[in-house]
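Hypothesis: this fold can be encoded by more than one sequence.
Test: take the structure tokens below, design a sequence, compare later.
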């Protein structure tokens, strides 16, 4: 069951890295984030942006959350600027679908730890850690959005 003020529909999380882009998707009620795939980052041909556009269409996504790797101090460095630039490219490609930004500090650390605890070796982790980080980003966003809806409706 979704929160009272919740707009039903799938959300997509994008964890843009310099080499790979992790993708995760939610269920329509926004309860659970699930890993979807890892794309190769394409800085020139933009095949990664085209692939995300196709995913958004296929899954009927109503919102995209892009991870922003803010430093532990809260300062925005070069990685944040790169993530913001990627979010802007997505906003252009996916308009009018909203593109939101989510603080993702330590998501890759959390994802790597979870994969290690699941018994996955480092070589196999490399292929899926970006998806797992996207899951963490999306689940944090979903949980916060539902909590805010419950607070605003007095639940």
């Amino acid at each position: 069951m979704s929160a009272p003020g919740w707009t039903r529909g799938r959300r997509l999380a994008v964890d843009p890295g310099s080499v790979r882009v992790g993708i995760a998707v939610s269920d329509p009620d926004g309860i659970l984030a699930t890993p979807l795939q890892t794309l190769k980052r394409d800085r020139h041909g933009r095949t990664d942006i085209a692939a995300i556009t196709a995913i958004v269409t296929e899954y009927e996504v109503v919102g995209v959350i892009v991870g922003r790797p803010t430093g532990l101090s809260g300062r925005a460095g070069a990685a944040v600027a790169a993530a913001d630039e990627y979010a802007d490219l997505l906003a252009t490609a996916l308009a009018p679908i909203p593109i939101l930004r989510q603080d993702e500090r330590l998501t890759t650390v959390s994802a790597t730890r979870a994969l290690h605890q699941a018994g996955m070796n480092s070589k196999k982790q490399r292929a899926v850690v970006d998806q797992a980080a996207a899951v963490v980003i999306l689940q944090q966003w979903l949980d916060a959005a539902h909590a805010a809806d419950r607070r605003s409706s007095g639940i």
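Strands lie at 10-16, 20-26, 33-40, 61-68, 99-103. The radius of gyration is 15 Å.
Hypothesis status: open.
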